[in-house]
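User: Teach me something about this protein's shape.
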Amino acid sequence: MDDVVQVVTVVDSRDLADALVRDAVAARLAACGQVDGPLTSTYWWEGSVETATEWRATLKTTARRATELEEFLAGQHPYDVPEVLTTPVVRGNAAYAAWVAREVR
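Assistant: First, the predicted structure itself:
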């Protein structure tokens, strides 16, 4: 499982989150992805505390493809400073990990 990673981003619309996941999977940068939300996010931005409704896209890929996926998400993202975070998967179903690796080639 040390090769599988999850890459997460948030955006301000469900349609955009769905499109990011669909396009990343179609480009074989991710084996799959899920969209969840709406979420309420609270954060510092330009000197004040902001609150916004967002949707989270979580994508599964390999460590080898993670940088390409991160760059793809950042390039398609509407935010000035997009959240794109990659987390290694430390344990899980070995057959699933093999499937992820096959799908992102």
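Now, about its shape. The chain has three helices and four strands. Strands lie at 4-11, 32-45, 48-62, 84-88. If you'd like, I can walk through any region in more detail.
User: That's plenty for now, thanks!
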